[in-house]
Amino acid sequence: MSSALLTLADSRLPAGGHTHSGGVEQAIAAGIVGDPVTLTAFLRRRLHTAGAVAAGLAAAACGADAESLAHLDQEADARTPSPALRAASRAQGRGLVRVGRRAWPSSAWDALPEPPHHPIALGVAAHAGGLTPRDAAAVAAYLSISGPATAAQRLLAMDPLAVAALTARLAPEVDAVAESGRNGHFCRIPAAADSLLDLLAEVHAARKDRFFAS
Hints:
mainly alpha; 10 helices; 66% helix
C-alpha cells in the first residue's frame, strides 16, 4: 500500500474536507441521524450514491488528459443536481489542488479546470502521487463516509470507538464501491443521485446557524 494513498485518505490532509459534514449536520437537525444505528444507515446510503459517483469520477480522472478532465467536470455537474452540493464539491476541489500541487508536483495539475469538482481533483492527485484508478476510486469511496462520520461524532458527542467501529464495518462495502468504480470509462460512471442529500444540502446552505460549510 502506497503512503500517497494513506495521505489522500487522511482527514488531516489540509484540503478543507474537515469543514464539510456531507449532509449529516442537517440530517441530525432533522432527526434522521441520532445514534450509531441511524448514522450507519445514513453513511451506507451516502456511500452507494454520492460515494459511488465520486469513485467513478475519480478513477476516470486518474491519468486523464485536459480534454477528458474538462468533460469529466461536466459529467460531475450533471450528476450533482443540487447547486449547494456543486459549490461544496468545487470548494473542496480547490482546496485539494492547493495542497496537492505542493505535495505531489506534476504538470497534470495544469490540465484541471478551475475550480474542479473534488472527485476530479482527487483523481489527478492520485495520478500525481503514482496511484492507480482503483486507488483513486477507493479514496473517493472512503472519504464519502469518513467525513460525515467524523462530523456526526463531533455534533452528537458520540463515542469515538463506536464511530470508528461502525466505519470499519462498512469497509467491505467501501471496497465494493471502489471496485465498481475502477473502470474509469465515461459510460460506466454511476449516476446515483439522492434527493434526500440534495434537499439536506440546500437546507444547509440556507441556514445561518450551522457549524460546517456543507
